Inverse folding.
């Protein structure tokens, strides 16, 4: 199974036939595979590169446009600093920092295949022993900057200057891309262009940064640790930015149980619609 790669700039094409053909391909790809990849999406490559610079765990010189030079990455911060933005005890909504071993998605393995989760997505309190089903990763989550019901939780500005400003800008860019994809999908389905806007125009999205620390191969093989279990995303659309390491596997909807590795370049966005399973 190979994902379709589509050029999002065709949505703005003044030639109606080309714009219509693009929209039809968006609808077809989601219907047949649940996934696609897009290029030329108006998020500059330099911005995506900067995103990965902010979150990499290695200590490497980063030049911030408004802050001179610094050598900090979010996931390279001391744990005590990252815990200044702690994820709430409740599983939802996702806000702030979640350390390694606190999140368990194994209960979602059969969700979206006619089954139901055996329990809610766990965000359990950290303990000395990390359960083998818990994901060996750490994450940072944020929502819309104007969400007053569930405000974002940030590390103090002096601990990571300009991080908040960058992430809020990136959130807005992703929301604009999402809106275009929804408009294209609506047209491809024969609906009016703004059909999905009434349910997706408030920016009630979540943006997640994920860091997967190194794991010895034998620990993965014996099942003592896991990256992330097979699962289905709950959001209507997911935009995934993947570095050269990759890691995403997608279940072929025509051959359930068969997973294919999905590779992408830094400038591509992998998009999936709700339900298809990934690991």
């Amino acid at each position: 199974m190979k994902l379709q790669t589509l050029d999002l700039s065709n949505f703005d094409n003044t030639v109606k036939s080309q714009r219509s053909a693009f929209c039809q391909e968006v609808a077809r790809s989601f219907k047949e595979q649940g996934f696609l990849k897009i290029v030329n999406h108006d998020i500059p490559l330099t911005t995506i590169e900067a995103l990965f610079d902010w979150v990499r765990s290695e200590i490497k010189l980063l030049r911030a446009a408004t802050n001179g030079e610094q050598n900090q990455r979010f996931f390279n911060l001391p744990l005590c600093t990252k815990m200044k933005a702690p994820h709430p005890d409740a599983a939802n909504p996702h806000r702030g920092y979640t350390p390694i071993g606190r999140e368990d998605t194994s209960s979602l393995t059969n969700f979206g295949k006619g089954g139901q989760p055996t329990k809610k997505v766990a965000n359990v309190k950290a303990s000395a022993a990390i359960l083998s089903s818990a994901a060996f990763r750490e994450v940072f989550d944020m929502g819309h900057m104007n969400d007053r019901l569930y405000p974002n939780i940030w590390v103090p500005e002096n601990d990571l200057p300009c991080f908040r400003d960058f992430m809020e800008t990136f959130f807005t860019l992703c929301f604009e891309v999402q809106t275009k994809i929804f408009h294209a999908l609506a047209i491809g389905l024969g609906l009016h262009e703004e059909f999905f806007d009434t349910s997706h125009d408030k920016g009630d999205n979540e943006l997640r940064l994920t860091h997967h620390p190194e794991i010895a191969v034998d620990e993965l093989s014996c099942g003592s640790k896991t990256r992330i279990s097979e699962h289905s995303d709950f959001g209507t659309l997911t935009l995934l930015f993947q570095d050269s390491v990759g890691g995403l596997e997608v279940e072929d909807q025509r051959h359930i149980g068969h997973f294919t590795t999905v590779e992408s370049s830094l400038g591509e966005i992998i998009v999936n619609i709700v339900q298809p399973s990934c690991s």
